Protein: DNA repair protein
Amino acid sequence: MFHTRHTDKEHRTEVEQADVSHTAHDKEHRIEVEQADVSHTAHRQRTSYRGRTNRCFTHGTLTKNIVPRYKNHPLYVLRKDLLKFEAIYPPDAPTLGFIRGHEVFARECVKNLHSRETWVKEAKVVRLGEKPYKIVKARPKYDRMTGIVIKDLPLEVFGEWQVEDYIPPPAVDGKVPRNAYGNVELFKPCMLPKGTVHLQINGLNRVAKKLNIDCAPAVVGFDFHCGGSHPTYDGFVVCEEFVDILLDAWNQELEESEKRRQDKHDKRVYGNWRRLIKGLLIRERLQARYSFERQEDSSKGKLKVKKRKIKRSIPSFAWRETGKPFRKNSSFNTPDQDSNLDLPINSGLVYCESSALDFAAIEVG
Structure:
């Protein structure tokens, strides 16, 4: 009996040891499988695009709408999807594969191209002897001389590997270097000509013209409106030796302009008061001469004249209906003239002080 119990105990111990070893073996197997999956995933990521494309062709997973997916793709690009001012650089860039007869390139090989004028705005110029990397159609241009819109003009574009930094020319003998249009192209601070200063002051050219000092407007950009491109100006460029003279003359001109403005304002105020006083004097003089009172009729808005009788003298040649003449010095009242007491009077002349007073109050206020 004791021997049997001992045998069962040993058997259970062996079973437990076998289970532990089997569990450890399973754990090691799972770790090996996970490592194999990780290495397989890394291997798939390192595989070239050509290999993936070939596998797709082998398994038949490519569909008809796979080509449009390359447009605006962040990693790959087709030559047919390049924009007007884009190109593949270098020219012998390796292809990553083919898709339905189209070469597939890496997106990092796509470079932007610009014309000579656009590169100048970035403070760059095309090196001498460089040939255009690409020729495209320019925008329609309006010819002011003939009034015709010219289309399909060729435009040469260059890449960033074909340009160099812009070196501004120096000022000589107090003259500011200009372009063909008489301006200084100042799209970047580094484009300022040597020996000159950029003064952002409006109207400085008038002072420079009076002093016979060379001064050129600065073009800092272009604004597109009214169907065309128009330059944007900001200040003027002058030589360094004339800066102090121009600033002193500008301050003096500013003071004189302020004085002229104040004199003009005072003259206008005094003129308004003069018209007001004249209107009051005219009113008093007319009131003393014709003895009228200003009474406004609420219904008609007319001025009423003070009631009084007007005597008229009868001429010596007047005759009665009976044939007897009137007396020479006789006088009579004219009821027809006295009956209409609401005679209209032109208030614009007599009471002109009201409008003058309002006008003066506005100017003074």
The longest strand covers residues 228-239. The two ends are 129 Å apart (CA to CA).
